[in-house]
From TrEMBL:
Residues 9-98 form the Chorismate mutase domain. The keyword Membrane does not apply. The keyword ATP-binding does not apply. Residues 15-42 form a coiled coil. Keywords: Coiled coil. It comes from Nocardiopsis suaedae. PROSITE patterns: CHORISMATE_MUT_2. SUPFAM superfamilies: Chorismate mutase II. This is Chorismate mutase.
Amino acid sequence: MTPTDGATEADAPQVQELRGHIDQVDAQLAELLERRALLAAQVQRLKPVGGFAGRDEGRERSLVAAMARRAPRLGERRLSRIMRAVIEAGLDAAEQDRSRS
């Protein structure tokens, strides 16, 4: 730890423990994102217009609003940015999978 970290030597074990918990959450989040991408790919295969052209902006707004109720600290504005990136990454992966087939 460097003096500019804002943490003291006594904080180090607590910081490490908290970072360990963050690592566990990140691992779970990665697994959930993978599951979400696989489900979204299935939806894309069933839609008459898929990929980025088939995005449902109303559904995305509703999804973000529902998530914001569960994560009020993040709120709709932040969650909107996060979910836009998640959705676009999933669509991109689905497009890549489709082009390989």
